[in-house]
Amino acid sequence: MSHPAYVRTEGPALPLHLLDRAGYPAWLAALPAATAAWLQTQGFEAAPGTAALLPGEAGVAGAVLGIGDRLDPYAYAHGPAALPSGAWVPAAEPAPAERAALQLGWGLGSYRFERYKAAPRTPARLRLAELDAEALDVLDACMRVRDWVNTPTQDMGPEHLEAIAGELAAAHGAQVQVFAGETLLEHGFPAIHAVGRASHRAPRLIALRWGEASHPHVAIVGKGVCFDTGGLDLKPADGMRNMKKDMGGAAHALALAGLVMARGLPLRLTLLVPAVENAVGPDAFRPGEIVATRKGVSVEIDNTDAEGRVILCDALAYASEQKPDLVLDFATLTGAARVALGPDLPALFANDDALAESWLAAGRATRDPLWRMPLWRPYLRYLTSDVADLANAGSRMAGAVTAALYLERFVPEGLPWAHLDTYAWNDSARPGRPPGGEALGLRAAYAMLKARAGA
Question: What sections of the protein cross the membrane (predicted)?
Answer without folding.
Answer: none
